Amino acid sequence: MKRLVLIDGSSYLYRAFHALPPLSNDAGEPTGALFGVVNMLRATLNERPDYVAFVVDAPGKTFRDDLDPNYKANRPPMPDDLRAQVLPMCEIVEALGIPILRIDGVEADDVIGTLARRANAENIDVTISTGDKDFAQLVRAAEPDRAGIVLVNTMSGSRMDSDEAVIAKFGVRADQVIDLLSLMGDSVDNIPGVEKCGPKTAAKWLGEYGTLDGVIEHASAIKGKIGDNLRAALPRLPLNRQLATIKTDVELERGPAELALRERDADALRGLYARYGFKQALRELEGASTANDIASDRAGLRATAAGHARGGGAAEAPAPELAAKGDYEAVTTQPQLDALVASLQAVEEFAFDSETDSLDPMQANLVGLSFASETGRAVYVPLGHDYPGAPAQLDREAVLAALRPVFADPARRKLGQHGKYDLHVLRRCGVEIAGYADDTMLESFVYNATASRHDMDSLAKRYLGYDTIKYSDVAGKGAKQISFSQVAIDDATKYAAEDADVTLRLHRVLGARLAAEPALEKVYREIEMPLVPVLARVEANGVMIDGDELRKQSQELGKRMLDAQLKATELAGRTFNLDSPKQLQALLFDELKLPVLVKTPTGQPSTNEEALEAIADQHELPRVILDYRGLAKLRSTYTDKLPEMVNPHTGRVHTSYHQAGAATGRLASSDPNLQNIPIRTDDGRRIRRAFVAPPGRKLVACDYSQIELRIMAHLSQDEGLVRAFESGADVHRATAAEVFGKKSLDEVSGNERRAAKAINFGLMYGMSAFGLARQLGIGRGEAQDYIALYFSRYPGVRDFMERTRQDARDKGYVETVFGRRLYLDNIKASNQGLRAGAERAAINAPMQGTAADIIKRAMIDIDGWLAGHRERALMILQVHDELVFEVEDSFVEELLAQASRRMAGAATLRVPLVVDSGVGINWDEAH
DNA sequence: TGACCATGCAA
DNA sequence: TATTGCATGGTCA
To answer: For the 3'-5' exonuclease domain, which residue ranges apply (predicted)?
Structure first.
């Protein structure tokens, strides 16, 4: 299939001018923008397009000026330094043999749009090279035998080649981009949009209503200030749509097929490059024309790229050197690759690391791989560096094919740092890893969960006394951060090879330390390491979400929020931001003079739920705020956000589990957190109905009943508590009967059971009489009596608590049933608050941590069994004491039996482990 | 833009 | 003066 590249010349010239330093040649002529454009053009031509055009704006009015006299009215005149570079640029473009298009009365955008559509219709693949995001409206995914339209921005390295890519960038499909731009407006072109409506808001509205017309139709339903802004902007929006639409039907003299690349004029180019001081381009010209010095040519390109990718670096001056601290080398030739593979096959273990362009392992693209098998030496294999002028790299597929047997060989031990990430990335490239044997993050976590963070930079500092190159050193940070694929290969090599090297060196230290602590070694070897591939699978499986259902709920919640808001405004007598605790505090406590009964940790009057409940009998407003808060929480955190988290490749939501997240050994979940999906209220519960099974499948949820209390019974060996669990009775009711002296469970009142439950839970968190009193809304003395009574009935529990505190003081740590250790740095602190906090943590950690160990063991066991049934059942969620599976209908019974049995058998305690389960077409039903 | 605070969701 | 987490919107430097 033929390919056409359309270059948005004006856009590049402006952007290069502003992105690059004000360089000049020996004669003092400005060259910065020129330099950027020339590099971009060379990179473009290196890809040998069949047709190409360099499109620039012509002077004069266009149809947009007629539509809106203010269009582009506030655009400043072109700076002189930039104007001076326009002519030389055109000369260079001409000399390169690229056709220049400049059509009177037609903007470059419309020329490009027209050519793109025509070429696409003629089944020519189109690449639009521009820095202007508006072109996303033209993107069209290629299909087999069907040309597509791709948008690339070589300055930022971004690429949009499908609706998914457009969604990732803008949150809307390509066909919604015009509507998005219409809502946002464009300050550069002086198009006023909806005030305060940025890309997020616009995308949200379009997600709800589909099109601009849909948004206009529902404008009255949008609440708040932003809704007013929208309504104010309504008359303007149709005009914005016309302005934002790139025309695709302009009359042109030349069609796509008449844009063939001409022979370049080497003599003219040589003169121009020399005049403007483009030494590397000049060298490339000479090198290619004589074709006898490939190596130096490549070196030249690399130096150019380094200067370019860093943006601020002087054009031809080398970038400031990153200090390479070991013998680090880039692998870019076949002989080097052969040597690497041979060396990996010759060793028993090696460290590896992957570099990518995203933190999300379910979306990241592989940019390079690094390896180290002896300390102080490492190599980096760049695979996807695609900045302008990037040197030739080995073919990605060929490299992966060569490495696949090494990764798949379980006898060759692989080491990593947070290897679960790399497992995902490589799996998505078709490389499965067997023999993932050690992970320095987990070694550190098991060795001492609280001594340091477990990222590589912290570990290197702590255990090696070594300062690593930081990611921000090579890629920048904040808004200016570039993708790793844009990092110069020399810099990338130092950074990436160091990662592998440091991983190996850390393992030498941490592996030895763990080996000296057999109990910890066991936790690491038998629980944490085997769990890595299990978690990777759970994450990759993901969960199916009914996005339409959630969007429907969002709309409904929005309506109810609006009602609450109106009522609140009425009650307050003025408008205020219901989301602002500060404004609310001023209103309630200063203006309405309601009493301050609760304060925040910083001493401010609190407006939290407890505080509002306490004053709800004195004024109607607190109740309305509480209602509003409940709705707003559900909408902002769940119903609005979850649909946005659907992975465009898989159509499912993939959380990340942090294995070294919680010091107690629990997992933590993020992006999104699927461990805090509401369940306690009816409105909240509805959200769980949007976690669904596909047709022909069911969700199965299995959860441990009272696991932490059972662990407390086991650890304390308290006869009464053990008996309660052995009898199979409702443990809170049994506790109430004991504490309140009832002869039979039937005599326990609801209130007594509630009190007993509060005591049971409170004890596990190290709660005091004060806390219990507050929880139950009773006097402190009464609470103290309950606790005393409890301890007299369950003396084993009291002894266990005291023993645990003493243990913590003596040893400085507490441990779980399986030997996981938690150090408590503050247990001997002189600060009484810190010490009390450490004591509470000491009491809680063995129970929470043992529960975490148990469910981890169950997950490993169940995953092993599921290996033979991957088509029929998937483990998809873990929520501390619960596992959720997605199961084929015909396999539900089998899975229920196996999962329950394996969970219950994951530990043998003094009391039985009981597993409850449920089945349904959604998570609510299954629970 | 980043950091912090207040708030609230889960086990 | 109740454990462990994560995400939100507001606010401020």
So the answer is: 328-515
